[in-house]
Amino acid sequence: MIEIAARLFLEKGYHLTSMDEVVHVSGISKSNIYYHFKNKEELAIGVIKWRISLLEQHIDELVRSKKSYKEKLNKMVALISNQECLDHDKGGCPFISLYLQAAQQSPRIHTVIKNFFLEQVPVVEEILQSGIAQKQITKAIDVRKTAKLIISTLEGALLLSEITADQHYMDDSLQTLTALLD
């Protein structure tokens, strides 16, 4: 049910997806859906949390890997801006799409997405620390501020990529950030 709702929100948008449509496409009874989610906002939050849990599993594995910090940053960006972000025929990036469509009307959706990105700052800090420890980053940097810059740039690049349907914002941003750290 969550996967179907995620696909519908991405393809049709938050506002154009109804609970009745989720019921119809999923084949799950209305009472069963409403047992788990009292309304569309709750369902959207469930979708976002589901996506976040999948991402966090991959990001955790990535941080523990033996890859270089550049490989880790590249992979983290690829995970967050997954292939669905590149497929603008299906609605764009799940986080940014829901953020743009629903966050103004749903402070809870806004908070869940905001918290996900804020929680990535310590993850990026850890990646940067590994780059310093492995002598891949030789410049003296403030790790916390640099991690915040990377997350802010990632959020901005995701937004611009979504609005313009141009993935180059993501690619160029990551290349520039890693070049600055060399």
TrEMBL record:
GO molecular function, one term: DNA binding
Keyword Membrane: no
Alphabetically ordered keywords of this record: DNA-binding, Transcription, Transcription regulation
Superkingdom classification of source: Bacteria
Coiled coil segments of this chain: none
HTH tetR-type domain boundaries: 1-55
Gene3D superfamilies: Tetracycline Repressor, domain 2
InterPro entries tied to this protein: Homeodomain-like_sf, HTH_TetR, Tet_transcr_reg_TetR-rel_C_sf, TetR_C
SUPFAM superfamilies according to UniProt: Homeodomain-like (SSF46689), Tetracyclin repressor-like, C-terminal domain (SSF48498)
UniProt DNA-binding residue ranges: 18-37
Keyword match Transcription: yes
Name of the protein described by the UniProt record: Transcriptional regulator, TetR family
Protein species of origin: Melghirimyces algeriensis
